[in-house]
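Hi L.,

You mentioned the student needs an example of a multi-chain input paired with its predicted structure. This one should do, with 620 residues in total across all chains.
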Amino acid sequence: MKNEIRVFAPASVSNVACGFDVMGFAINEPGDEIILRLTEKSGVVITKITGDNGKITYDPYQNTAGAPVISMLKYLGMEKQGVEIEIHKKMPLGSGIGSSAASAVAAAFAANIILEANLPRNEVLNFALEGEKIASGAIHADNVAPCLYGGFILIRGYNPIDIIEIPVPENLYCTIIYPHIEIKTKEAREILPIEVKLVDAKTHWGNTAGLIAGLITNDLNLVSRSIQDVIIEPVRAKLIPNYYGIKNAALDAGSLGCNISGSGPSIFALSSSIESANKIGEAMQKEVEKIPLGCNVYVSKINKEGPRVI
Amino acid sequence: MKNEIRVFAPASVSNVACGFDVMGFAINEPGDEIILRLTEKSGVVITKITGDNGKITYDPYQNTAGAPVISMLKYLGMEKQGVEIEIHKKMPLGSGIGSSAASAVAAAFAANIILEANLPRNEVLNFALEGEKIASGAIHADNVAPCLYGGFILIRGYNPIDIIEIPVPENLYCTIIYPHIEIKTKEAREILPIEVKLVDAKTHWGNTAGLIAGLITNDLNLVSRSIQDVIIEPVRAKLIPNYYGIKNAALDAGSLGCNISGSGPSIFALSSSIESANKIGEAMQKEVEKIPLGCNVYVSKINKEGPRVI
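Structure written out for the whole complex:
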């Protein structure tokens, strides 16, 4: 048995405009790093957390990385095994790019290897979801699944959870801008309507279907036409200062489609070249600086591999 | 200029469970036949209608086949050209399998050829939609587009109309049963809710995305899991006696998915072989006879070519 493992898990963009709660994709950077270390003394202990400004709990039962490890040890009948966890947050918390999902996935992925559990990915998913549940209070797989599987993921349904891996065009790039404000996922959910107009719902199912068709058949024009949101965006845009200014700047700079990443405040913009992705990032940044707010900009291809041992 | 043309246009299944108003596919049979004949005397005249039990008007302006021809003549500046139309209905009216769409498409397709207009298909579509509008009172393309293009069609959006041709697995078969009751499209629309729960809408956009992915990647199991409707079916099922008995019989007989065709009363069931499609037809028929009602059963592959000159 190996004694230590260090795993990177990527950030992810959920919802993807039309696909609220059912779609997401992973990006190459940023991402979180988790170290698991087997110890003689039984019990799971979080020994170090960096990059969180002191915001994350060291209680392993209440920690998105701790819970999956505890749960997997129990499942394997290995409660006596001691595990130390180090969490190195390499991306901002609560920024809408799947920070808690990345920590949960990295921990579950690492535990599966170091405990020699050899569980298939769909079972590892369940342990990662337990970590995500601690963060968001509910089982949402639209960050966890893309982070764990890599690529673009459709969660067709939740009863039972049905993960579909959608092939993506080779030349698809994502620019993300994170304006330095905080939006709590819970609050971003509470402002959503319980009911929506059937005519708006139809618009969404036309667009989700179009987006999937465009991705699989490598039709970026169709992808672009399908990245629309008439239900969630109009409500959540109010939480992000100058949102439409930022979005329009991305579109004017040539983005295929731009929308809120997860529950925000991060905003993602897709494009078909690294040059375009960089240009879009600069254009969005100018709009954020007008507010004025600080921001982080990330430019990356779609991540295809999910977590990896480093 | 050729003097006469005879065109067949196929029946079609719209909605396809999850894709209310945005999806449809054409089937090989039944279908309507339209004959157009150029005449010396100006004006459009409907000279013969068969198979309609006297239900269809001979007024070309109020007729789904007449309106597209009149409209195309006007568009081409050929108002002086005389055209005779014969309409041979080879499928039941108001049965939910795109009867009016087939007549409108056949007429527009035939007019485009005999008038030597050489309009591209997306323009022919607009003329066919004018005919369909007379029948349903609104612009719905989910029967007209599959009938005209053949195959499985996604109407991603309506502003402007955005037709996406979705490849379908070679071995996809459709069984249709038409129980002999009448459901008016207008009434079937009026009972639908204006608003739906966001959670149900999400179920639909997950399923429409899943259905499209399953069709394109030839994953019939995914197609099967995606053919679900939690919004329209529960409301419209009440209009069809023993609907769930018929549906369950189809599923028990091995159907990949079964639901209401268009606004009903026809019910479609997909399967992956002709043997299975026939067996499903027999099972559904037994349930319709229990009501008791007469019925028609059609078994066919997905139609890939749309209308054709015969």
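You could point out the following to them. Chain A has a mean pLDDT of 95. The two ends of chain A are 17 Å apart (CA to CA).

Best wishes,
N.
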